[in-house]
Amino acid sequence: MKLFHHSKHNGDEFVYNENIHQRKRKADCHKVHAGEQYVVYNDSIAERYRTINQIGEGSFACIYVAEEIESLPTRAGLLDCVVPKSFAVAKPNTPQKLVVKVPKQNSRSDEILKEWEVLENCIGSDFIVTARFLSNKSTHGLCLWMDYYEGGDLYDLVNECDISLMGSTLIIAELVLALEFLHSRNIIHGDIKPENIGLDYFGHIRLLDFGVATQLREIHRNPITGRLEAITESGTLPYAAPEVLMRRHHGTETDWWSVGVMLYELIFYKLPFMSDTEDPQETCKIICTQHFPTPPEATLYQDAYILISQLLNKAPEHRLSYSHDTGVQSIMKQEFFKQLDWEAVRNKQYKAKSFFSL
């Protein structure tokens, strides 16, 4: 059952939804002990893997890194399964390491299947995670297998490295291209945050975790505006947009709000919306009713500040990118990106790692 806490401020209603997650500490994830290593095999491609360690956990599933092994153990394990032929769509040259998303006990497999269907619609983007195949196990339902990116994620990078202004610009630019691709297929990601920005060996991004993504269809078309809109109830504080917290119909512009929050965090090393006590209801109220603070350093990063201001517009219809036809172009033309050649960004010609330092 979904629980909502309703509050009112100056006649406007906002909602703290328990489906809007708060950020979990990575320390809560744990290694899989030697006695808990399991394998999965696929008859159609003869790939065999065992889980190495847990790297994440969501509401419905846990995320593990798995590596290929030469032979199966004698006893069956947690992930022993055969991929049904209808799901055996693994791409050739499957990597030595993969990531597997395993449903929690008593979780429904349709969440995994929904994510798989969204990722199938994202084939062709160099900035979105590559899904490899599904596997099936009666006690755990469907497991989703995806590429593993050894550069970690943006959350770790922000906390462990100094990122130059050019590095922050490149990260956001690659995210813009990922969302350009995603939104062109009428998909709302719904949970843009540093933990869901993976990094490959060279430091280029891959958008991860489509567990709460929404595929907009014709039934979602607003008869008045003609836009595809839905009500989504998931995300992560403090990256969720006001219209999500207020349970209003919205389109892909909610993702751009989250990009604005991330850009603010990259440039000013703090979050624009957060209660001093980290109380979720208070944070919701701040997001829905208050303007983000202007740091003293804003004068040094005017181009970034202007872009942030246009992305963090509480009125979705006035937010940069609202227009389906010109939205992404209106972002790409911002002065913040003036140092970049967009074709070079698209072709990953920049040496991303050179902009990060320990």
UniProtKB/TrEMBL annotation:
InterPro entries: Kinase-like_dom_sf, Prot_kinase_dom. It holds the Pfam family Pkinase. Its EC number is 2.7.11.1. Keywords: ATP-binding, Kinase, Nucleotide-binding, Phosphoprotein, Serine/threonine-protein kinase, Transferase. Residues 49-337 form the Protein kinase domain. The keyword Transferase applies. One of its GO terms (biological process) is cytoskeleton organization. SMART domains: S_TKc. It comes from the Eukaryota. GO terms for molecular function: ATP binding; protein serine/threonine kinase activity. It catalyses: L-seryl-[protein] + ATP = O-phospho-L-seryl-[protein] + ADP + H(+); L-threonyl-[protein] + ATP = O-phospho-L-threonyl-[protein] + ADP + H(+). The keyword DNA-binding does not apply. PANTHER family: RIBOSOMAL PROTEIN S6 KINASE. This is non-specific serine/threonine protein kinase.
